[in-house]
Amino acid sequence: MDYAASDLTPRERYKVLTSFILPRPIAWVTSMGPTGVVNAAPFSFFNAFCEDPPLCMFAANRKPNGQDKDTFLNIQRTGEFVVNLADEPLAKAMHESSGDFPPDIGEPDYLGLKLAPSTRIAVPRLADTPWAMECKLWKMIDVNDDRRLIMGEGIHFHIRDELWDNEAMRVHMDRYHPIGRMFADRYCRTDDRVVFPAAEGVKRS
C-alpha cells in the first residue's frame, strides 16, 4: 500500500505519520502568560537535534477554532519556555493537561502540579518531573500559517538526583521510566528494553 502525500488531506497525512513514527518523546512545555499564569501543554511532534548548541524543536498547531495556542503566544511574547519530560507517575496529569483550558486558568494550578523556579529564565518548571530544560527561543518557522516549528536553545538542565550518575555522566536507566506517545490517546511505557553488544562494522584484515 502506498500513497502520494499530495493525494492525502492534512488529516490523513497526520494519521499516516503518527501511526508509524512512534513511540515519540513528549515535550511537556511550560510557558508564562502576560498576567503570570503558567501554562503547561504536551507536544509529541518533538525531539532534540543538536548538542552544540543544545537545540530542541516542537510543533505547535492552531486550535480547532483557528486561534493560536497559549504556548505559542506566550513564547512569541517572552522568548522563553521550559521543556519538561514526564515519567509514569506524571503521565495521567500530562495527558490531562492536553485538554482545553482558557488562558486565565493554568494547567499546573488546576491539576495540582507543583512548580519550581527556573535558574536563568522567568518561566517556572514542573518541580516533580525527572528532567527539565530551560530554553530560550532560537528560531520560529511558520508552516502554512497554521503550524509553527518552535526551536529552543537549552541553557540550563534540571535532573532528579537519583536518576543521574554525576561522575559517569549517565542516567540510571533502571530508575528512569519515561512515557512515550503512540497515537490518539494511546501512550506507551518504556520498561521493556533490549541491549545489543557494540556494533563492530566490517572487520578488516
Largest sheet: 7 strands, antiparallel
Proportion of residues in extended strands = 35-45%
Mean pLDDT across every amino acid position: 94
User: How many structural domains does the protein architecture include?
Assistant: 1
Low-confidence stretches: none
- Determine the CATH superfamily: Electron Transport, Fmn-binding Protein, Chain A
Q: How many strands in all?
A: 13
Broad CATH class: Mainly Beta
Number of helices: 4
* CATH structural architecture: Roll
Helix fraction, binned, reads 10-25%
CATH topology term:
Pnp Oxidase, Chain A
Shape: globular
Q: How are the strands of the biggest sheet laid out side by side?
A: 2-1-5-8-9-4-3
**C-alpha Rg, in Å?**
18 Å
Structural class: alpha+beta
* Distance linking N and C termini: 44 Å
**What is the N-to-C order of secondary-structure elements (H for helix, E for strand)?**
HEEEEHEHHEEEEEEEE
